[in-house]
Recover the amino acids of this structure.
């Protein structure tokens, strides 16, 4: 045998991976080809067999309030704050705790009473601030968790921890995990859609980092698709001038053939992703204009979401879009609204934030319910942590009152999707500072969301760099008392 023939018998590492990966790429391509009658129905070879058990929720709408709403001003009523207003919070409560650099060196920590008025609402008797009158109207639909706690004291790592299960960027977002595990219920829209908005006063400097909805080490086909707040919701959705839909179809068919050749040669799942994304973009050219056409929405529905509902990029507009996306089978809608970071403007900006977000949030729950969608749609409202019961700054400087970041206790609410309605779970101390009963850690919260979608969070893993990763890391317990 010649030396050249002998060499060919020894597969290189590159050739081995290239040839043995063919099956993965072919399986991923199969589902795409099926839609146009070009191949047999094949499952996504990368996706696990889920759900593990019958789900209560089919989809999630996460109303993430970036910057952290003040739990002690909005939901967690603590009369002690009024009684001790202006006096030093006891060291037995706050001593030795870690805060952001804005109050880390502040020696005086005067208690700050709530700046709103609390009332009880509905049969459940839930305490809700008068800053949130529309949310108060749906109190009996809500499950309040007042014992949330986290480990992070700054926004970016706290949001990353909440959405990905890790403090550092690089792990898959919750929506990516669900897209990977459960797939999409729509052929015309992505499984995971993200929309962002911010307060009109631009009082909050929060940045929407792409890794908040990134796919991490999962294939990039599972990352969130961000809808823009102006112009075309997705870049390059419209055909260039002079290009018809037929010409675009021909061009994509040619690209698909070239990409299929590469896929067969290398078996790289990212090539399958490229094919899938080209096809999804083509379908979205038809589905997105219909999705964003609000002309057929009844006026009473538009009025329910508030005066900003027709302004693209507003929180109200995004809430209505979230309902329309849910109707069309989108698995996970991540709606992020910045503006809750009231360090020096609590007396003015908190009420403005509530006015902008209260009616749309409540309208979304009402709208889903009247359409029969709330039962299997999990709606979540909340921030990445809470705000301190003590004042940031000086008590005599009323116009600059504020509250610092507070990871030790905060409140979120959930509705629909298999959670108990009209209940409050967990309790904080008389200052709203520490959790004293039924604490819910971020990983517990993530495990509970997974459970409602029919997923055992301990079994739902992805192997990366020699380790089985999961959303909840190596922690988390399902919060069973909130399950319907």
């Amino acid at each position: 045998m010649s030396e050249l023939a002998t060499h060919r018998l020894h597969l290189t590492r590159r050739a081995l991976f290239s040839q043995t990966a063919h099956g993965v790429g072919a399986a991923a391509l199969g589902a795409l080809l099926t839609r146009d009658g070009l191949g047999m129905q094949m499952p996504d070879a990368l996706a696990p067999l889920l759900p593990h058990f019958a789900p209560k929720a089919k989809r999630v709408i996460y109303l993430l309030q970036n910057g952290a709403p003040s739990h002690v001003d909005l939901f967690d009523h603590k009369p002690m704050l009024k009684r001790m207003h202006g006096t030093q919070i006891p060291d037995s409560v706050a001593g030795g705790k870690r805060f952001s650099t804005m109050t880390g060196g502040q020696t005086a920590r005067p208690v700050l009473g709530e700046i709103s008025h609390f009332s009880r609402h509905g049969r459940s008797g839930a305490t809700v601030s008068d800053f949130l009158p529309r949310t108060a109207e749906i109190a009996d639909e809500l499950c309040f968790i007042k014992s949330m706690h986290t480990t992070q004291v700054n926004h970016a790592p706290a949001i990353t921890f909440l959405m990905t299960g890790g403090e550092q960027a690089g792990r898959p977002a919750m929506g990516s995990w669900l897209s990977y595990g459960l797939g999409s219920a729509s052929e015309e829209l992505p499984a995971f859609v993200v929309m962002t908005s911010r307060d009109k006063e631009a009082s909050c400097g929060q940045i929407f980092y792409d890794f908040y909805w990134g796919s991490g080490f999962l294939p990039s086909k599972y990352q969130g698709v961000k809808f823009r707040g102006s112009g075309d919701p997705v870049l390059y959705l419209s055909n260039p001038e002079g290009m018809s839909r037929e010409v675009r179809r021909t061009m994509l068919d040619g690209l698909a053939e070239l990409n299929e050749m590469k896929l067969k040669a290398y078996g790289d799942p990212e090539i399958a992703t490229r094919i899938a994304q080209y096809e999804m973009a083509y379908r979205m050219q038809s589905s997105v204009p219909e999705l964003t056409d609000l002309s057929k929405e009844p006026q009473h529905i538009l009025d329910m979401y508030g005066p900003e509902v027709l302004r693209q990029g507003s929180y109200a507009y995004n809430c209505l879009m979230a309902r329309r996306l849910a109707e069309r089978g989108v698995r996970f809608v991540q709606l992020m609204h910045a503006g809750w970071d009231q360090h020096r403007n609590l007396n003015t900006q908190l009420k403005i934030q509530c006015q902008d977000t209260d009616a749309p949030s409540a309208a979304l729950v009402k709208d889903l319910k009247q359409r029969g969608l709330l039962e299997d749609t999990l709606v979540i409202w909340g921030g990445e942590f809470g705000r301190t019961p003590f004042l940031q700054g000086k008590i005599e400087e009323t116009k600059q009152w504020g509250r610092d970041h507070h990871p030790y206790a905060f409140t979120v609410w959930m509705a629909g999707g298999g959670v108990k309605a009209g209940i409050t779970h967990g309790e904080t101390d008389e200052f709203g500072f520490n959790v004293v009963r039924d604490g819910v850690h971020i990983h517990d919260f993530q495990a509970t969301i997974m459970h409602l979608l029919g997923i055992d969070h301990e079994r739902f893993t992805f192997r990366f760099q020699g380790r089985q990763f999961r959303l909840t890391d190596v922690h988390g317990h399902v919060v069973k008392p909130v399950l319907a």
